[in-house]
Structure prediction request, 414 residues.
Amino acid sequence: MIIKILGSGCKKCMTLAENTKEALSSLGQEAEIIKVTDFADIAAFGVMSTPALVIDETVVSFGKVLAPKEIVKILEKAAK
Amino acid sequence: MFVLEWLNDQLLKMTWLSDLVKLLVENVFGLDVTDRLGGSIHFFIYDTIKIFILLSFLIFIISYIQSFFPPERTRKILGHFKGISANILGALLGTITPFCSCSSIPLFIGFTNAGLPLGVTFSFLISSPLVDLASVLLLASIFNWKIALAYVVVGVFLAVTAGTIISKLKMEKYVEPFVFSNKMLEVEQSALTKKDRVDFSIEQVLAIVRKVWLYILIGVALGAAIHNWIPQDIITAVLGQDKWYSVLLATGVGIPMYADIFGTLPIAEALVAKGVGLGTALSFMMAVTALSLPSIIMLKKVVKSKLLITFVAIVSIGIIIIGYAFNAFGFFLM
Prediction:
């Protein structure tokens, strides 16, 4: 599973990245987390509001800093 | 009318707070509020508390309203309109669409990809930082309703005009090519429950307070200094109403600076109290919020220099004109 965090580097994106790490460790999972900060790359996903969460090239959330609990739910859904 | 004035005094000017802080300064610190030190301390404590209370309250309410207008929905709505009404709507929606400035580039790209005219996107981008509902209410609390309303009208007008001019100049070719070649996220906006909206609003309050508290403290401190420490003569010598260059100076200083609008309000208030023209103070506020070195640097990534310079020039000239106009006619509103 490759997770990408889309955002130009402001605090919200960093918080999302940390929350994602927390969610992963609470599930005992590991995944590669890539921070995407280049606008052209972010635009390529069609995202307008950052931060956004991408799992295996699919945008699962945008415009919000998800709490670890919410990320856990999304991860579990993605695993199915 | 008396009731409205009473409401204005209690809720927005918070005269009760001013009185409480006065008691604090006089009885606990043992200072006289009519002298310099006491006056500054009173101003600092009262203004800081007032701004934070208003800020939290206003942002909560406004975020709740804004939760109905995410950028994705705004884009959809704007897609249905053409011509100048699209610009007007873009400017109006810019005031109520929430987004953090770090999203401004993805948003620009998203709007452009959806086929929205360049001018409409710019109208949106200009009005967004400039006319912010919470700060308009704060403006009302510091000055009065008529001025706040005039500021909104003028801000929207500036956004619409600038956007329209940019459209007419047909500067689409100055947008970086990569902006146009992207897919759009077809949004399945899951319906937000009331609880979602409340949570979002609380998050926004906390996030914004965390972001701007320092600017507010600095702004209030500067305002206090201007109020009580810097002699009136120096201020009017540089920025006085009769100085023809005051608006230019205020705009010029404000453009490269970035501060949150909430931080500029106490400064504007103190300057006007010291005899600086209302227009000069407003120009400063507008220049600080609408244009800033960080945002210009970001825009440079998606538009080429010619368009960027046009954008900065149009907005600056607009701000300067507005400044002179408010200086000339502002006393009708005070």
